[in-house]
Fold:
Amino acid sequence: MTWVNDVVQGLLLGGLYALFATGLSLMFGVMRLVNLAHGDLSIVAAFVALAIVDTVPVNPLWTVLVVVPLMFGVGYLLQRGMLNYTLRGGDPLPPVLVTFGLSIIIQNLLLEVFSADSQGLDAGRIEDASIRISDRLAVGWFPLLTLVVGIAVLAGLQLVISRTRLGRAFRATSDDQETARLMGIDNRAVYAVATGIALATVAIAGIVLGIRTTFTPSVGPTRLIFAFEAVVIGGLGSIWGTLAGGLVLGVAQTLGAQISPGWGVLAGHLVFLAVLAFRPTGLLGRTVPA
Amino acid sequence: MSATPTSAEVAAPGGRRVQRATLASRVWLILGLVAVAVLAAGPLWALDSVLRTLIGFFTLLALATMWNLLAGYAGLVSIGQQAYVGLGAYGLLYFADTLGLNLFLSVLVAGLVGALVAIPTAALAFRLRGGYFAIGTWVIAEVYRLVVSNVSQLGGGSGLTLRAASEYDRTARLFATYELALAVGVGAVVVAYVLLRRRLGLALTAIRDAEASAQSLGVHVFRTKFLVYLVAAFGCSLAGAVIYLNLLRVQPEAAFSINWTAFMIFIVVIGGVGTIEGPIIGTIVFFVLQETLSGYGAWYLVLLGAVAVLVTLLARRGLWGLVADRTGWSLFPVQRRLQDLHPSEGR
Structure:
């Protein structure tokens, strides 16, 4: 029966991956921009939370109130001041080069400022508390909270995209940027808000990661890769697909790790490659990867 | 597209001719040949430490040239080329140590291993485009790293030392490795130049300018990109094998490190993406920066990243782009210029 426990833990882990994947999926959906510094920005959020907790004695969960708006601002300015310039001309090279450069810059700046030591955020009792369902099955409160937050963020984003003026602007620029501009939409501002929202979700993900496990300046790329796998497994352009992709990835990694500790991450990669080979539109995707 | 002019100058209709080589390019060609000859005689005049630095230089030049071929010409922005550096290193280790093949022949076989692995890799990665292709190639490189780390015959996570190398005299091995590195570095540039002057270069230019139109005119888009990917995989694996023939100690974290690709990207971007000269200039700049800033630790990479970002944003064609704009030089003329046979005045 241990596999039931593994699947449940995998689903809970998947909640975290979905949380990481949301922002990547949003930015790609709105402006076809793949932010290679995505994972590193989540680690920035975790380090900012750490700096706050070191200065003011509060529970790291409260840092969300500061870090999320801060990262929204960072995202907005990053898009307006830099990334928008890479999107001119439709050449796929500049966005990749600039965000890859950013990723290297961020990792090494964090290394200089915070050293290579492993850090962690201590959220107190909630980290260890769990609900015992049977002898072999226990659900931790914090992983459960992560999954709930992940679903809530995705649901909130779905609402914004389908029901609000902003969401309509997102969909319009995504479908046809030229026509959207003719209709009076300032696509640069729309992109900036989208990146702001993406980095706000990344901030939540980074803080949750910091509470769940330890982190160093160099773990960002791994986060990017898991987020990317969740997006592709779930299907590009599908919000709920991103959740499904995160859950599948989480379960694959947990079950893989049961076979042999070294195979956990690899099992996740293999599921990703299998989806790419046999179902390139992803589990819930409607469009071909583009 | 049926017949591609290969001679330097071909008559075109209307009293014009297609010009390829220029006076400047011929002068530079001669200077380049002299430079290669001087470098080939390196063991006669250089200290061992200089030779080792140059091995690093030539192999990085090969890696950067291959990445430039991918990203600058075929639009394949891979950030997974470290896969082939690692496969080259482990291919060398496996064929030379485990199978007992000749050490230097193993380098070539390691290159072929990389090209072979590139076939299924491309089949999967080509399903993704643009930025997602970039991360996809990275994931596949991670898969190869994790698989190698889990094979105990290859030393697992802690790696192995190339034992076959100890059968050779130290100096003889250094000289041989040096000549091999020079051949790989110069060979990469020559292969890129020759490929781009031929049909493939025209096909790539057409695809870059308008993929759909190129396809409708009979350019095999998939086949063209696939070929470039295989060439780049072969080149990077060969370079990887030579790098580890010099370093001897192979470890999965280092051999499959994303840093290899980061260096390729920085070199090509700074030197000038989409030009053959770019990676050469970029590798020189990279080495000068590395030697001067090596004491600054992580700040060096921060600076390198910042320069790459700024160049991409402000001077997209890199250092060589700036030089070429001012002088009109082209050391490796792959373009075809239409020229009047009765020019009124010079250029």
Summary: The radius of gyration of chain B is 21 Å. The mean pLDDT of chain B is 88. Chain B is about 70% helix and 5% strand. The CA atoms of residues 19 and 93 of chain B lie 47 Å apart.
